[in-house]
Specification:
The complex is a heterotrimer of chains A (about 425), B (about 425) and C (about 250).
Chain A: E1 2-8, H1 11-15, E2 22-28, E3 34-41, H2 50-71, E4 83-85, H3 88-94, H4 102-128, H5 133-138, H6 141-148, E5 159-166, E6 171-176, E7 180-184, E8 190-191, E9 218-222, E10 230-234, H7 236-242, H8 245-261, H9 264-281, E11 287-293, H10 295-337, H11 342-377, E12 397-403, E13 408-414
Antiparallel strand pairs in A: 1-11, 2-3, 3-5, 4-9, 5-6, 6-9, 7-8, 7-10, 10-11, 12-13
Helix pairs in contact in A: 2-4, 7-8, 8-9, 8-10, 10-11
Chain B: E1 9-11, E2 17-26, E3 30-37, E4 40-47, H1 53-65, E5 77-78, E6 87-90, E7 98-99, H2 100-104, H3 113-132, E8 135-137, E9 145-147, E10 154-156, E11 162-164, H4 180-183, H5 190-206, H6 214-217, H7 224-233, H8 254-262, H9 265-274, H10 277-281, H11 289-301, E12 303-305, E13 312-314, E14 333-337, E15 340-343, E16 349-350, E17 360-365, E18 368-376, E19 382-385, E20 391-394, E21 399-401, E22 407-409, E23 415-420
Antiparallel strand pairs in B: 1-2, 2-3, 3-4, 4-6, 5-6, 7-9, 8-11, 9-10, 12-13, 14-15, 14-23, 16-17, 17-18, 18-21, 19-20, 19-22, 22-23
Helix pairs in contact in B: 3-5, 3-11
Chain C: E1 13-22, H1 30-52, E2 56-65, E3 69-71, E4 77-78, H2 95-105, E5 123-128, H3 136-144, H4 147-151, E6 153-159, H5 165-172, E7 178-181, H6 184-202, H7 213-225, E8 231-233
Parallel strand pairs in C: 1-2, 1-5, 5-6, 6-7
Antiparallel strand pairs in C: 2-3, 2-4, 7-8
Helix pairs in contact in C: 1-6, 2-3, 6-7
Classes of the chains: A alpha+beta (about 425), B alpha+beta (about 425), C alpha/beta (about 250).
Chain lengths: ~425, ~425, ~250
Amino acid sequence: MRCFDFHCQGESHKATDKMCQDYSYSHVDENGLAIAVVCDGHGGKHYFRSDVGARFATEIIANNVREFVNHIDETLLVGQPFTQQAAIQTEIDRQDFRKEKPVDMAFRQLFASIISQWQQRIERHAAENPLTEKENAQVEDQYKKEFLSGYKLEKIYGCTLMAYVQTPKYWFAFHLGDGKMISFDHEAQWKEPVLWDDRCFLNKTTSICDSDALNEFRYTYQGDGGFPVAIFLGSDGMDDSFGEETNLVNFYVKVAKSLVTDGYDATFADIKETLPVLSKRGSQDDMSIACVYDEVKLVDALPKFILWQIALTKASILAVNKKIMEAKDRRNRLEMAGDHTDKSKIELRYAQNDNDKGYAEKQQLVRKMDILLKEYNGDAFVPYYDEVGMAEKERVLVWKMEEHPFRVRLVWEEI
Amino acid sequence: MSELRTGEKISLLNGGFVTIKKELGRGGQGIVYLVDLNGQPKALKWYHNMPDVSFYNNLANNVMNGAPSSAFLWPERISERQKGSFGYVMALRPQNYFEFGNFLLAKKSFKSFQAMMAAAMKICNGFMMLHRFGYSYQDLNDGNFFIDPDTGDVLICDNDNVMPQGEKSGIMGKARYMAPEIVAGGIPDKYSDRFSLSVILFMLFYANHPFEGAKVVACPCMTEAYEKKFYGSEAVFIYDPNNKTNLPVRGIHQNVIRRWPVMPAELRDTFIREFSPEMLKNPQSRMIEQNWGKLIASLRDKLVICPHCGEETFIDEAKPQCMNCGRDVDVRRRLKLGLRTLLLTNGTRLFIDYDNTPDARVAVNPQDRNMLLLQNLTKEKWTAETPSGKVKSVEPNEFMPVKHGIKVGFNAANKGEIIINNQ
Amino acid sequence: MSLLDETVSVPRRTMTLFFMIDTSGSMAGSKIGAVNDAVVNVLPMLDEISVTNPDAEIKVAALEFSTGCNWLYNEPKLANEFVWQDVQANGLTSLGAACEELENKLSRSKGFMQSASGSFAPAIILLSDGAPTDNYEAGLAKLKANNWFKSAIKVAIAIGDDADKEVLAKFTGTNEAVFTVHNIDALKQIIRVVAVTSSQIGSKSSTAGDTTKQDQVISEVQNAVDNIDGAEVATKVDGSSYSDDWD
């Protein structure tokens, strides 16, 4: 097992001189215990110490999961199939109640210990560091009295948290708030191992500073021998940069491939260089990532990661093809109709626009496809070609994926 | 481990049989099946393994003696020993009853304080009757209780662990519900049951465990050694006024943090006393079920409908304000009933006896908005005597005016008098 | 930096601005003319915000409602590509149907929205000069349960005194977000102010717990309204409610 983690200031925080409010941690020890943690301090102006809150949460989680792993009755987890538990609040909303098992009680104790130690740490921090004048100015009058009396002090330190923990016999993961955790198995199939909480939506998130934080933890565990090959924890700055989830997954696939082909050091150096750029191009937010991976199994999975990307790109190409065909069709129809009303003129313009955009998008996707095909098949790869939105060629070829007993390869077939 | 198939027949002690329909659920001890007994749907709990003879005999005895009260989903029939195990038949749990654990995690909430009080009263009575029958409850935990959130009706299940006092059933309860002396290795008895009752009631009112505060949640993993400390030798009540080491923690114990200050002071004082270090060490001095019953009744006597916002509120007579809208509530009109004082506001229901069914309803006189009326919700007629000595009867569903000095005989045991202060 | 090559897509974040325009018969004449005129003129301003904004691009969608309701285009379009087609006025005021139609489109699977990651809450501007003629309550109730709608910036413009401001306040969630105009000039100005302000604020990164974007928009528009003759803010009502810890 290996791991890395990195966090950096977001582009928009640079402008306002705000600290990086994300914090990350990862560690693998000689007993095969692997831990990855990402905490994201809230960015609103009331949460002016959320950078400290996120750091405390990260440190406490790292310590407490170690102690948990050292003391828990392993039989509660060993042999258990992949099991996901939603936040208790979600159960309340759905009026669908699970039966609490001893393993659930054990996790509840772990989560409670995280909240309570975090509360203690921030109370101590607040006592040792009274609000500065600048901070005081950020507290709205109506809350000032409460803050001075220590009530709801946790709000100014608020953050989200997520963690992944793996031992040789089992793994578990938990999450409170937004951000995304993505895991890959040996077939390069991805999933979000921990259930989502619908209350995290757009810029709203659940938080460790909520009054019922304990009911907001969601978690997953597995002890039947199945382990992820790689798992990535990213703050919401990451997923907000990619929009559609498959874009985020595709980025992690890229990182996973790089870990195999370019090695740990080069990839980690790349991550450090990439995340600030990604923040600038994407979410503007603080970025953090933590990863645990099995360096042996990842090598075997490499071709499957490329195939996954090829399949994803293929799906995008087909979608663009459809868009292009539709735009062409619309354009032809409008031209044939010869109608010169404003409305049909506008429609015609849109049809042409969509067609042009489709072509540009297609070109980009084909370039991407060729890169991937080359990665997969080597220099002898055959460039991608289909009939839509590309220069016409004499032969009509179809693109086909052929399954061989030992490996999958891509072939061209003439009809 | 013994499992049964659909259609299989299980013969019962003293004749007859049940037919297995389908599985309803399973736990550590056994599986519960839906069965048919002479055309009636029933539940059969079937043990994974054959328990020993004394367990079987105890259960057979309980069946013979019958349920102590309607709160118990009591074993009705016991099967013969067969197929490597045995089981017992009980009534099916009706719809809309939820495990007590769901109330603790606030997954389910009582529809009203009236329902909450009804549940508390029913649990109290259940324990009282159990002890009166000479039993003690050995395996008390939040999985045993099922509560209807709308009415507060309670069903106590898993009554196979009920044993004559002083005998040990061999099944250890969960430490969270055990008295400290049992955690330390003692044998459960009615005194330890009383402790368990006060824990259950605390959890019912506040949806938190009375000993689970900062000390308990500080450790990431609950080990047996910790359990022995936190629920036994070093148990500290979370609101112990002289020991603040185990206070509730924000974000974790939110229910009790919210509810502790708003529930009536009498309740706070009682729990502070019952969970004090002295009381923990002296099982014999713990509060008996009857006194819990009286306390709950007196809380219910002060639970009224706020005339301003229409919500339920407990009234602190020193400062009669609605806990929802904060406005003053006029509680000059009362019903004196022995040592009890029931406050009368429009819409409030009165519980004269302890059977959890409202016996009277307060209404407004449509002709005179300043005059309240009492409606007879019982099936018996009341006899009222006016201050001038006239005797009137109030038939079921009929009303009588709330006027100072009227004496009301609700039944042979309960006679009250209407008082309007400052008159 | 090989991690961000051509095989990795980092799309721009988006914010969608919705116009919901009452095109019932009573809007005919100068009112509908002013609306058409104002929207055409504000589109380039929105484009400028979109282009100069590092946080997100702005897309526009418009729903007109009278006896029925109709989207001008069946997808949101970038502000600079949005060609305004003048809307005509006649028929009834089916606000309920419009609410249901908006609800349909405020979704990812069958509507106009994309993945919540990378999206900003939409801004929704409702213009009306009358009272609903259909059962708007059922439609509005559905809309109010929609997560996108809950997070959205919602502003309403009441055109003249016949507009049912109570209904508009129910739509926006507060009557502070209902602005009333009494003349054509004020109508044009308020459309511009509301659209520009919502887009500016709506397309900026913000984080949990800040004053809501809707509140920010309200306060900025309120300031602007003070300088527009014939425009006013609906009066503030006491919205106090009592929360119960027990349910």
